[in-house]
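Archive entry. Fields below.
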Amino acid sequence: MEGVVVLLNCFVSPFGNRVRIALKFKGVAYEEKAENLAAKSPLLLSSNPVHAKVPVLIVDGKPVCESLVILEFIDDGFSAAGAPPLLPADPYARAHARFWASYVDTKLNEAGMRVWRSPKGATAAVEAARKDTVAALKTLEAELGGKPYFGGDALGYVDVALVPFAPWFLTYERFGGFTVAAECPALAAWADRCVRENTCVAESLPEAEHVFQFVCGMRKAFGLD
Amino acid sequence: MDHHLEQQAAESEKKAVKLLGMWASPYVLQVRWALAMKGVEYEYVEEDLRSKSAQLLAYNPVHKKVPVLVYHGRPIAESQVILEFIDDAWNHRGDPILPRDPYRRAMARFWARFKQDKLSPPIWRWFTTEGEEQEAAYEAAVEQLLVLEKELAVSGKPFFGGEKVGFVDLSLSPLAYVIPIYEEIVTGGGGGGVKMVTEEKMPSLAAWMGRFLSSPAVRGHLPPLEKLRPRCQAMREAFLVSARAKVEQQQQQ
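PREDICTED_STRUCTURE:
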């Protein structure tokens, strides 16, 4: 694939950071533009008119939206360079990977958001959100099983889909009152392994404390405290 | 291949592919149409979702939903994942469901999600509410339908997939037959009621609906409209009754 590659992202976005990891994994040169989600740029609004969300990947002027769609696009479009594929070749294994990536969005992200987004004092809502988040993490941990990565021996599609949520664990823990290390030790170990053994991951993820500060700022701005 | 060998191949394929479904589910229908596009023989198992079978719970423990496609004993769940699997596993057969070009593939996946994220929620809200809430939902749904209308009109093609039915057409397929049912029910079955998709406002989409339902894969397995109407009617009534009861309760407090 030819052309200039631009990524519109927000540094804490787990969805945007999936794309960062994939681009670095494939060795694709790109330019990143940081978006202020409270004041979206004209470029963001024109390249993602339907959702006005990050990430957006713009290749040769053509925008691609939705992080998992972008991951597959990167995998489809940049594999010719001899870079390893994110998705396996076998149809069943691909379906399996897509199922679990979708699970991260529909079950983990959804519950995690409720943990940190609930207004102060909404204890019942936070407790319910905590339970759902822990349940989702445990389900993912069970899927990982004894493998070093969801993709097997090496980083794959599901790993890239999930690991950008690891910097958010601290935020879930502080608002939800639990620790991932205690509830899901294997998953916590996996998150560390991803960072330790893969520069593309280490270079793509924000500090957990920065995510927490960002969320605290958002909560103030939305009057949740 | 001679006739005997062909028969044997079809029978052994049927044993290899099983679909767990439920007659009213549009997600199941999408999968059936995709399998028909690829000419795949399969065993169909009707599930009673009020009393889920041990088989369903074993094959889809995470979500416990249909459709589930079982391929040589291995289950695949989530309709969009299944559609992509069918395209991958039978890519040597029939027409491609997804485009081959990476950018066009990305656009196809984007539009499939659009339906789930932006279109289905307001349409469902419109169908299950009344009064102001329903009016607001109607406006929201029409706004999103116009986005689709523009997309199809600009392409100038008969289907979202181009000359033939593709991934986006399959993903949008419930709109083709569910919207007319909803329109009938919401306006009480009388003539001159409120329509969501009109030839006037959305000519491309209106034409697409009829064209999609007459396409080869769909013609062989039409949605069960006669059974669906009373079922949808009952659903709307149940939602309205429950909403009215809540309002009464709140007024008494």
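CURATOR_NOTE: The CA atoms of residues 17 and 71 of chain B lie 5 Å apart.
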